[in-house]
Write a structure and sequence with these properties.
alpha/beta; Rossmann fold; 7-stranded parallel β-sheet; 3-stranded antiparallel β-sheet
Amino acid sequence: MDIRIAADTAELGREAARLGGDAIVAAIAARGTATIIVATGASQFDMLAALTARGDIDWSRVTAFHLDEYVGLPETHGASFRRYLKERFVEPVGGRITFVPVVGDAADPGAEAERLGGLIAGREVDVCFAGIGENCHLAFNDPPADFTTEAPYIVVDLDEACRRQQLGEGWFPTLEDVPRRAISMSIRQIMKAKLLVVSVPDARKADAVRHAVEGPVSPDYPASILQQHPACTLFLDTASAAGLKNGEKD
């Protein structure tokens, strides 16, 4: 795992967008197309702003999946992840990208997970942009995460720590309003990406970062699985890196 510590979130976002964007450009040059996975949440604001500002990516040749969405939440809701990505990613690149949304309010969440699995199955994913939750979750794979399922997307229950994070970030007015289930990309599917670009700013993530980087690989700390990926770069700021014993490290 390559760890890079930025002075602030703006620098973190620029550096993450540079690495991930360069991989997209290289994939298009090599194969004519690229497939990526994009994430949401406050951790991705600066990265997405920098990525969409690049002028050297032919977005018409890119297909983008996203990591997760709340079950039962319509796209019109302010906390909808597909709304977030349309506003912060799809629209800024002129709508030229092929965007595959997770339809959280589908009548049958299990069938929606299977539909998405069929669409991503067999694809070579060039870059996965991701973050880490306060409870060390990866996508909406809360602890203890399923490290074994081969299904690309699964329906999951959200634990209270995860739901409290969503409340604390201001996405919902009360804890009771935070959905209890989500459709999430699975751990194994995330790990299939050729490159993982993981952006994790903020002091509230420091404990999760410590477990992900320096703890044992365990379903109790889902993001610890990133230690086993051959090409994962973790972008931190000084606050989120504060709990690491050895500072900047590979």
